Give the backbone structure.
Amino acid sequence: MGDEDRGPVSLAEKLDRLFQERSRERGKSLSANDVATEINIRAGEQVISGNYIWQLRKGKRDNPTKRHIEALAEYFGVPAAHFHDQRDTGPGGGSADRPDQPPELLEAMQDAGVIAMAARFMDMSAESRTAVLEMIDRVRKLEGLPDVGGATGVQGADPAGNPGETWRTAR
């Protein structure tokens, strides 16, 4: 079935996909109790129960609170909007119908690890983002990967989407 054939995707389906992806990453099955425990530990208080997450995942409940959505989004490394958008956004949250983007970029955007990195990257200062990009460029060079951009200053949106800022992709 092609991307254009996909209809609305339920919260349960999206949550189930995230569980499956995380289970593959871990190499073992992830339970609703595992997720609830981690969320509650991170929050330092009872935010959500494993039973409630299970009900959301199975479609038995479908109207979580904003706090629950934010906690699940943070745990899985996706934006909270991932759960609200009823289009099929692919396994990692990237839009499945973005013909303006190269396929390899869309594929990378659907990777849970890339999403988790981007989520951590977005609230950093411009200086910190530049430092992280420089480190990534060094690691790419060590791995023998091609230079991405290569310019010392690229005008337009910075990596966090702030228009008009200049940022470096390589020294």
